[in-house]
Amino acid sequence: MNNRNMKNKHMILGVTLGNNFGTHPATWRMPHVDPRSYTNIDATVEQARTAERGGLQFVFLPDRLFLNGDLSTAPSMFNLDPIITLSAVAQATERIGLMGTASTSFTEPYLLARQLKVLDVISRGRAGWNAVPSYEPEAFANFGKVLPLRENKYERLHETMQVVQALWGSWGYEAGQPDQAGMYADPAHICPVNLQGKHVGARGPLPVPPSEQGQPVIMMPASSGYGLQAAGMYANVVIGMPSSIEEGRAERQTVQQAAAQAGRDPEEIKFVAFVGYTVGDTERQALNARRALDDRIDVHGQLSRLSAYLGLHEELTLPDEPLTAAQLASVRAYPNDARSVRAVELAKAGWSPRDILAHGVFDPNPYVAGTAEQVADHLQEWFEAGAADGFVTNFDDFHTGIGDFVDHVVPILRERGLFHDGYEGRTLRDHLGLPTQYGLDTRIATGSTGGTR
Ligand SMILES: Cc1cc2nc3c(=O)[nH]c(=O)nc-3n(C[C@H](O)[C@H](O)[C@H](O)COP(=O)(O)O)c2cc1C
């Protein structure tokens, strides 16, 4: 039912960037990696340029507002401020979209609106905002606050989204272009927004004219009921983490329903799924690349977890040997757990425990270590099954992973008619095939933001 006629349809591809190393905690330890890359903007720029060489629609910077992880073993995935980082990337790239995460829980909307729209104008219409409510107590502690009730957190999100978008639209297109013999801009079309809610408000206007795409694209995560309802109202793109095609189809459908409920056309909202890949000349080579990373972390915990996921009640004492006939006779998958099902499949196919782990069975997103064809097959299967409109790719090692994907997988996707041959337009909105929008979407009721001052 969800299958689409793929003839003229291309998938969207984004790529996660972050600490300049990669999504695997051991990448910083690799001999080819400069361990000081964490703050090296040249590394970020090079990764973004590589993605741009492949025609990827956007780079994505996730964010957390506290120092997370154990620095004694690995750098945090979230390092520098996304908006500031993307401002530097904007100057060093031409076409690729710049999707940055910023929380709706702390920053006043005037400041958020200004920073994001400035990124949009300086990148000539390539900015996107991954708008997320923060959810960890540690983030709230950094603002001298305690974690609010979910209801209040989303109330603030609604107000923030509406005030930010209203501010974006406050310098109207009708204000015109500077006329040296007349007005610089027509103030009659640069108007206050006068919005005041329970949590936030702003008078406006914002002194930033429209960008080439009007205003930034909005991405939001597929999360709880509250989040989904908000995404249905404001998001142009929804990012999810489905672990199977079935989950992807269901999430995509739910997102589309949320858009319809908010009075929007379900087709104008794009659903993208997180995926992870390592590309090799052979499957063995790709798995070895992952294993070289796994060898640099303590995998004992993962091996114990694997034993449990295989339904075994014993330690996997020979991690480099395929399971014994006796072990294989007693493995059992938890049917509702996609990871357990996959682990059992891999064990039955004769892979050793370490190779099963190298297949990324415990990664937060579906992961393939294989040849370029195997990776392209995975993307094609998910896309054609209607599990997603596109993907945000994650690579263990940004230095090698992005280039391998661009040089080997992208040409196959193009050959199969699944990915565009290059950027048709100039803005992120063009790349994603989104309708124009400027200011608050007039179809969305602004009930939770209160009235005018
Ligand atoms: C795919 C995906 C990506 C997310 N990215 C971020 C992020 O970059 N930063 C962040 O603080 N939260 C991120 N979140 C968390 C959500 O913002 C949200 O707070 C979380 O899912 C809890 O939602 P709830 O409070 O509605 O249960 C992400 C969630 C999902 C599903």
Q: How many domains would you count in the coordinates?
A: 2
Q: Can you tell me the CATH architecture of the largest domain?
A: Alpha-Beta Barrel
Mind telling me the CATH class of the largest domain? Answer: Alpha Beta
DSSP helix fraction: 25-40%
Any idea of the CATH topology of the largest domain? TIM Barrel
Give the mean pLDDT. Answer: 94
Query: What order do the strands of the largest sheet run in, or round the barrel if closed?
Result: 1-2-3-4-7-8-9-11
Taking all Cα atoms into account, the compactness measure Rg is 23 Å
CATH superfamily of the largest domain: Luciferase-like domain
Oligomer: single chain
- Beta percentage is 5-15%
User: Cα distance, first to last residue?
Assistant: 48 Å
Number of helices: 15
Q: What is the helix/strand order? A: EHEHEHEHHEEEHEHEHHHHHEHEHH
Tell me briefly what this model is.
With 453 residues, the chain is an alpha/beta fold. Helices cover 38% and strands 13% of the residues. Flavin mononucleotide is lined by residues 62-64, 101, 103, 132-135, 150, 221-224, 226-227, 239-241, 274.
